[in-house]
Design brief:
The protein is α/β, with parallel strands linked by helices and about 325 residues long. The chain has helices at about 5-10, 15-25, 30, 40-45, 50-60, 75-85, 90-105, 110-115, 120-125, 130-155, 170-180, 190-205, 240-255, 275-285, 295-305, and strands at about 65-70, 70-75, 160-165, 185-190, 210-215, 225-230, 255-265, 310-315, 320-330. The N and C termini lie far apart (about 55 Å). The protein binds S-adenosylmethionine. The site of S-adenosylmethionine has 17 residues, from α10.
Length: about 325
């Protein structure tokens, strides 16, 4: 291995994401959703400098997000789907969220020195409506692919009554209710987040089968009678004791024979991989008091202790990848 080259590549690694995030933020991708355009046309349309625009577009072409021919740029359909407003899986909010977290990441040395969070996700969600909506929209952008892939792996159609704990926009409930016309789902989250979830429920036209329940799952009742409970991208916000408590609580709310699905970042036993999950553990350390990407073994033990059997772990080709599922033991 050429270590010097390796270090060089690691050091340059932050630049392509910044190119993508800058183009996203400046609305450049939407200028490339039609016929091929010159750098000048893009710069003029968005009141940007020609010099900067040209260099950014060249970099995007170098990254193979754009194609440059006869001094004109265009974006292949495969990228338009994700990067333009009109794309049917637009990831704009998600990309912007990653950009917004950059200033926190530059304080990584402070986190390593103190072990203390630098910003609170829950404060962000509870106190600033604009940030909260952007965050929840980003969750929706990100969740879509995982919903489809998890549904392919697990027989969710066997369930009739689902609880989506810390459900955010309700993406998983909505997508699964769309596939299974008999499924009814409840999205449980804090009140301000549920205002956004209600918009999504309306947008999906599923008000008759997907509803909301407001509360704090550390204190409030989750209801009962569910035969499918999902906890997606939530457990990493809490420490291991809170994780076990939440798992105990959801298994209490689950009918015997019902299915539980834990989805999110989760690492191998020694915490070193998969790399995105290991890096996420740093990310969530910056943003929560006790959060981390818990180990698959650890989460499996939580489920076993709570009375879950038939436990299976698999990964999907989405972000995040981890899924652990099992069935509540019948009495
Ligand atoms: C990272 S988001 C995940 C949203 C959704 N499950 C998804 O994967 O798209 C975490 C969600 O958990 C909710 N949450 C965290 N702690 C909570 C608590 N104590 N009670 C209720 N909701 C909570 C947050 O408000 C947020 O909507």
């Amino acid at each position: 291995m050429d270590v010097e080259k390796e270090i060089g590549q690691i050091l340059q690694g932050y630049q392509p994401p910044l190119v993508l995030m800058t183009a996203n933020q400046l609305g450049i991708f939407d200028q490339l959703s039609g016929a091929p355009v010159t750098a000048k046309q893009v710069a003029d349309a968005l009141s940007l400098s020609l010099k900067g625009t040209e260099r950014l577009l060249n970099a995007l072409a170098g990254m193979e997000i754009l194609v440059k021919e006869d001094n004109r740029f265009h974006m292949p359909d495969a990228w338009r789907k994700y990067l333009t407003e009109k794309g049917d899986h637009c990831m704009k909010q998600w990309i912007q969220l990653i950009y917004d977290l950059l200033p926190v990441w530059t304080q990584l040395p402070d986190f390593v020195r103190s072990g203390k969070q630098l910003k609170s996700i829950m404060d962000m969600l509870g106190t600033d409506p604009e940030n909260m909506r952007a965050f929840i929209d980003a969750m929706h952008d990100k969740g879509l692919k995982a919903t489809e892939m998890i549904a392919r792996e697990i027989p969710l159609g066997d369930a009739n009554r689902m609880l989506d704990v810390g459900g955010g926009p309700g993406t998983y409930s909505l997508e699964w209710a769309k596939i299974h016309s008999h499924l009814k789902a409840t999205v449980f989250d804090i009140p301000p987040v549920l205002e956004v979830a209600k918009d999504y429920i309306k947008r999906y036209d599923l008000e008759d089968r997907v509803d909301t329940l407001a509360g704090d799952f550390e204190k409030d009742d989750l209801g009962s009678g569910y035969d499918l409970i999902l906890v997606a991208n939530v457990l990493h916000m809490y420490d291991a004791d809170s994780g076990q408590n939440l798992v105990n609580k959801i298994i209490n709310a689950l009918e015997p024979g019902g299915r539980v699905v834990l989805h999110g970042f989760c690492t191998n036993q020694d915490g070193t991989g998969p790399l995105p999950d290991t890096l996420f553990s740093l990310n969530i350390g910056l943003l929560t008091e006790g959060g981390s990407a818990h180990g698959v073994d650890e989460m499996t033990r939580w489920l076993e202790k709570a009375g879950v059997d038939d436990i299976r772990h698999f990964r999907v080709e989405a972000v995040p990848t981890g899924v652990i599922t099992g069935i509540k033991v019948s009495n």
